[in-house]
Amino acid sequence: MSIALPRSVTARQNGAAIGFMLLAVLFYGFMDALIKFQAARYPVVEVMFFRSLFALVPLGWLVLRGGGWRALKTKQPRLQVIRALIGFVSLMCFFESFALMPLADVVAIGFAAPLFITALSVPLLGEHVGWRRWSAVLVGFAGVLIMVRPGSGLLGFAAVVALLGTLTYALSIITIRRLSATDGNAPTVASFTIFAVLATGAVLPFYWVTPAGTDWIMLVAMGLLGGAGQIAFTHAFSLAPPVIVAPFDYANMLLATALGYLIWGDMPTAWVLAGAALVIASGLYIVYREAMQRGT
Question: In the chain, what are the domain boundaries?
């Protein structure tokens, strides 16, 4: 049985969801800038370790609010391990690409994730994708090709790593969809973060460079922002349907462009902006069509 909410309540929930999404974008945007700054100074493994370690602080608070250790129980431990491995590869790829590419370029390529999710949901989840969404996927991939321009010699190591990070991120989201049938958010988020801490911590002695001065503060802030962003992002989607919330994720492009210009003097090229516009438009259409299909 479903209960129809008054319009005023629905409007407040939608407004709160949008607010939490914009808050997540703010947290993630500054976290990405800190990652780019620190990845140029310290080994990627070390930056990943600090990001994952201090993300446990806000996530630990979330687990305590959800009932403590009971909130971490999972009915699909093998799939949790697979999700943690895929998510770790994605995280590593994005950290490496942040060190090599302008901030806005990495964010723009990352916007291709909904395209990969839509394409992969057919063989992996058995979902039906109509011709409209397939058309949007093709348009979006054309946008990706415009951004990286394979024939121009710009499709180098950094762009390939960013694309691999986007692909593995999409696989991670698909895995989370399967986990959501039996598990809550807490075990999925915690297993991935703990795995990242253990994996990077195991090899950290071989790469360790002692942080200097205020770098300690930035490394800690990076993890806290990541954990807080994860909570805000998840809560936004719990308050309103994706068709309401997802479009505001693209505000990250504006923030990444502004931070990239103010800190490093980077500006996206016309090719990146044109490609990003196609990717964002196709992504928004896919979100809209999925909402129509699910009746949300």
Answer: 7-294
